[in-house]
Amino acid sequence: MSRKALSPPPPEPTVVWDAQGTPRSPRFGDIYRSQGLDGLGGLAQSRHVFLQGCGLLGPQARWQHRAHWTVLETGFGLGLNFLTTWAAWRADPHRSRLLHFMSVEAFPVTAQDVLRSAAPWPELHPLAQSLAERWWGLVEGVHRLRLDDGQVLLTLGIGPAAQRLHELSGQADSVFLDGFSPDVNPELWSPSLLSQVAEHCRPGTQLSTWCVTRPVREALQHPGCGHRSRLVVPSSVLGWQARRWLTPWRSEAGRWRCLRLGPVRVPAPPACQRGCVHPMCLKTIPGCLD
Length: 290
Known about the structure:
Helices cover about 25% and strands about 20% of the residues. It contains 8 helices and 12 strands.
């Protein structure tokens, strides 16, 4: 009796797209982004939380008249934060001469997913196409992609975040803490990893994130992290009155200082499926400030 060799099961896709066009991760059981009340929330989320949170929008954007500007991101995902940053940088006539974007990603998506993610926003199409054309051969390790005639550098660390952060070089002017919820991906928000992030910061580095859970806030205030970076969490991320807390950081003179956040009131629309109450439907979870 002959036996047929069993074929291995097909690999689990990194991204699945639901009927509403929301990208989801089967591995983590979480969404890459929510749609927002207008169905196009991803771009607005990225601009509001990360660019505005790090002072990179408006007539006095912090990268203006600089030779170079470096952003460090945890969790590249579908590349939306990178594309949004690149687009905002290009639109600023006083931008830095060079934009360097460093990011880590354990499970890279496909080039087709990058294009599909950017599809709702025509202003991102040429940038997404340029990125997709170079999106190949991303085996585990550190890769550097040159874009926009060499004026934009994308350094990607593919693999476990802790290993790749150790291999990245350079100091960040802005930090985007992103990634799936700490409930499903705790490694990306652990005190040890956030301390690694701090090693890539200089005094005065601004950091922004959608996640304001108590453990993350406490980790960012740990001496291994808070002495180097400045936590900037827009109060509107919360969708209601933000409570105040202090994040220490050290000036170049070595003196300890503190940044006080909130409180600011913003309108609270009906909650979305994740329990978020922010107008742009951010990934804020119920009870995150308990």
